[in-house]
Amino acid sequence: MTPVGCITEHERILQEIESTDTACVGPTLRSVYDDQPNAHKRFMEKLEVRIRNHDREIEKMCNFHHQGFVDAITELLKVRADAEKLMGQVTDTNRRLQDAGREVTAQTEEVIRCRIQQRNMTTTVERLQLCIPVLEMYSKLKEQLESKRYYAALKTMEQLEKVYIPRVSRYRFCQIMAENLPKLREDIKDISMSDLKDFLESIRKHSDKIGETAMKQVRDVVVGVDQPEEEGVLTAQDLVDFSPVYRCLHIYTVLGDRETFENYYRKQRKKQARLVLQPQSNMQETVEGYRRYFNQIVGFFLVEDHVLHSTQGLLTRAFTDELWNMALSKITAVLRTHSSYCSDPDLVLQLKNLIVIFADTLQGYGYPVNRLFDLLFEIRDQYNETLLKKWALVFREIFELDNYSPIPVETEEEYKSVISRFPFHDAEIEKQDFPKKLPMSQSVPQIYVQVKEFIYASLKFSESLHRSWTEIDDMLRKSTNLLLTRTLSGCLQNLIKKPHIGLTELVQIIINTTHLEQACKYLEDFITNITNVSPETVHTTRLYGLSTFKDARHAAEGEIYTKLNQKIDEFIQLADYDWGMPESDGQASGYLMDLINFLRSTFQVFTHLPGKVAQTACMSACKHLSTSLMQMLLDSELKQISMGAVQQFNLDVIQCELFASSEPVPGFQGDTLQLAFIDLRQLLDLFMVWDWSTYLADYGQPTSKYLRVNPSTALALLEKMKDTSKKNNIFSQFRKNDRDKQKLIETVVKQLRSLVNGMSQHS
Question: What is the CB neighbour count within 10 angstroms for residue 323?
C-alpha cells in the first residue's frame, strides 16, 4: 500500500475509534497490526498528533468557560444566607404541621384498626358460612351411622368429599374429618358384612320352613286343596328379611368393591349348598327324613331364585344353573343310594310322591328337573322290586294256607262271592244243585285278587309322573309280567318241589294253574280299563301269564311223574322173590297187587286233569314199572334164577298187563298202554316156551315174534339159568330125559354171544 493510502486508512481507523464503543475497538486495532510492516508505528505517530489536537481544543474550551464558572460560584455564595433563613422557616412549619397531624394520625390508626376488625369479622362470617354446611353434613353422617342407615351415610360421605370438604380443605378440622372418612367406610363395610353373615346363618335355619311352605302349596294344588283367601300364597320374601343382602350389596357397590361382595356371597352359598345336600345317615328309615332333606333344598334354591330376580347381577343364571346341576348330581346320588336300602314299598311310594312334589316345586321356579324324573324311573324299578318281595310273601302264605281241595259252595251267596273275586264260568257246574264244588282250590281267587292289588299298587307309583297313559299302560304290564313270570312262577316252582306236596296236591295245582291261565285275559282287560289303552296298540306289551302257568303246570306234571315213579320204586323195594323156587305160587306177588291197587286209585284222582296229562302219567308209570321189573330180573347181583321164579315173575307181569288193558285212564287207543310191557312179555315168552330156534331163525326180521328181545338181555338171563352147580340145577330133568338138550343150551349160548359180539362190532 502507498504511503498516501496508508495515511488515509489510518484516518479511517481513528475516526472509527472515536465513534465506536470502546468494547468493540479490538477488531479495529487488530487491523492496524494486520497491515504492512511498520504500519503501526506510523499509526502511533498519527494517533499522537490527533491526541495533541484534542488537548489543544479542550484547553481552548476551558479558557472560554472559566469566567462563567467563577461568576456562578460568586452568585451562589450570595444566596446562602437566604437559604438558611428559608430552612428555619421550613423547619418551623414542619414542627407545627407535625403537632397538628399527630391527633389525626391517632384517629386514623383507630379507624384503620376498626376497619381491620370489621374486615376480619366479615371474613370469619364468610368462613363460618362455608364450614357450617360441612359440620351439618358430618353431624347428619353421625346420625345416619347411629341409626344404621349405612347406604345413606355413604352417600353423605360422598357429598362431603366431593362438594363440602374441598371448599374448606385448608382448615385442620376438615383435614381430620377427611382422614376419618375412609375409616368410617371400612367400619360400614365390616358392619354390613357382619349383618350379611347373620343373614346367611339365619337363612340356613329358615330354609326348612321356606321349603316346607313352598312344597305344601304345590302339594295342595296337586291334590286340589283350596287355600283360604286370607292366607294367600307365601313366598320366600314373606318368611325372610332380605334387606341385609340388599344393604350390603348397595354398600359394596357404592364403595367400588362389588366384585368382592359377589364372590364372597357366592362362595358362602356354595358352602351352604354342600351342607344342605349332605343327608342324615338314617334318612332312609322314615319319610320325615326325606321330607326334611327336600324342604331344606327347596328353601335354599327358592332363596337363590329370589336373590337372582331381586338384585342386579349379584347372582347370574349361569351361577344358579351351575349350582343346581351340582345339586342335582348330589341329590340323585343320595336318593339312588338311600332308596336302595328301603325294603318297604309304602315308604318307597311316599318317597316317590315327595320327589314329584319336590321336582314340581323347583320346576315352577325355572329349575330343570328332567333328571329327577329319570331317577324316578330307577326308583320305580326299586319300588317294583319291593312290591315283588312283598307279594312273594303274600303268595307264599296263600299257598301254605291252601287245603288243595275243590272249593265247596253251599249256597248261591257263597257261589256269587267266589265268582265276584274270580272270573269263573262253567255252564255244567252252574246247572248243578247246591251244595256243589268248584274245580279250583281257594288259593285261585286269592291269587287273582292279589295280582289285581299288585296292579293297583304299581299304578300308584306311575301317577303324577307326567307320563302318557300309553307309557303307564306299558309300565303296568311290564311290572305285572315280572310278578307273574318271576314272583308267582318262583313261588309255584318252590311249592311244587316241597316234600309235603303229594300227588293229590299236585293234581290240584295243575287244575289251579289251568284256571289262572284262563283268567289272564281278564287281567289284560283290567289293565285296559284302568289306562284306556287298547290292547291292540302296536307297542302294547302282552301279559306273559300264559307261559307262567304253563311252565308251572309242566313242572307239576313232571313232579307227578317223578313222585309216581318214586312211589313205584317204594313198592318195588318191597319185592321179596325166591329166585330159586322150584315152581310158582300160582298167584301174583302181594307187593305187586298193592302197587296196582295204588295206581288204580291214584289214576281215579286224575279224572279232573287234562286228558293228555293223565295219559302221560299213566304211560310213564307203566314204562317205569316195566323198566324196574326188567332191571330186577337182570340185576348183576342176582346170580341164579329158577324156572319156577321165572313162572312167578310171569304171573306178576300178567297182572301188570291186565291193569294196562283195564283202561285205568281213558283215552288210550287199543293196546297202547300194554305195549309198555312188551319187552318183558316177549322175553318171558321166549323162556317160558323155550322157543330158541324161532328166536335165532327170525332174529333181525321185522316180523320176528321176539323182535323186542335183545340178544344181550336174553344171554344175561340164560346165563343165570345155566347149570353152574349141581345144587338146584334146573336142567337136571333135561339130562335125564335127553342129554342132547344140554348141548342145545350151550349152542344157544354160543350163538347169542356171537350175536352180541356182532352187534358190538357193527356199532
Answer: 19
